Amino acid sequence: MIRDIVTIGHPVLREPTRRISVEELSTPPMQQIIDDLIDTMRHANGAGIAANQIGEHVRITVIEVNDNPRYPYKPRIPLTVVVNPEITPIDDEIVVINEGCLSVPNLRGDVSRHVSVRVTYLDRDGVEHDEIKRGLTAGTFQHECDHLDGKLFVDRVADTRTLTTWEQFERFHRAAFIERITAFVERVGS
Ligand code: NI
């Protein structure tokens, strides 16, 4: 079911979500939250969505990138259900990514993200995963895990002069960003 997306200012976005057990994960209410997250993300053309963005206090996010009209430069990510994720940076390499968010309507801004991270999580069947993510894909995982920790991308915008509406981004900033990030994606490979 497509759910309403909570926007910035609602307290649920600022509260860290709670981890769930494998037992609880297998219950119909939790599996329904996962299905709702997938439906809501796809309906809104998001690259990912976290459970607290639909008002649910659990540490679950879903991520998927196909041909995304909101982020056409993003490499594809198959549908990934991510439960109880923990992220550890692998090294000090940083990339500045211009980000947006379904809970921050019509605003984008530059955020520094780790280029390479280790992510541990459970999938919707409770199977453990321990994976390395790189580049823009790593950035997407960091953005969604921030949500689950009660953080929004705007908290990480160091230079507030990079904040733009989507319309002004298209007019004044898109070309330079696409050129830089395309070169980055070609170098990093994801
Ligand atoms: Ni977001």
The shape, in one word, is globular
Number of continuous helical runs? 4
Spans with pLDDT under 50 lasting ≥5 residues? Answer: none
Distance between the first and last residues' Cα: 31 Å
Fraction of helical residues? 25-40%
CATH C-level class is Alpha Beta
Report the β-strand fraction as a percent range: 25-35%
Number of separate domains: 1
Structural class: alpha+beta
Please state the CA-atom Rg, rounded to the nearest Å: 16 Å
Strand order of the largest sheet: 1-2-3-6-7
List of distinct ligands in this structure: nickel (II) ion
SSE topology string:
HHEEEEEEEHH
At CATH level 3, the topology is: Peptide Deformylase
Counted beta strands: 7
Overview of this protein structure:
The protein is of the alpha+beta class and 190 residues long. It has one domain (11-188): Alpha-Beta Complex (Peptide Deformylase). Helix content is 30%, strand content 29%. The chain has four helices and seven strands. It has helices spanning 22-25, 28-43, 135-148, 166-188, and strands at 48-50, 60-65, 77-89, 94-101, 104-114, 116-122, 128-134. The strands form two sheets. Strands 1-2-3-6-7 form a five-stranded antiparallel sheet, sandwiched between helices. The protein is globular. The model has no long low-confidence stretch (mean pLDDT 96). Bound molecules: nickel (II) ion. Nickel (II) ion is lined by residues 101-103, 143, 147.
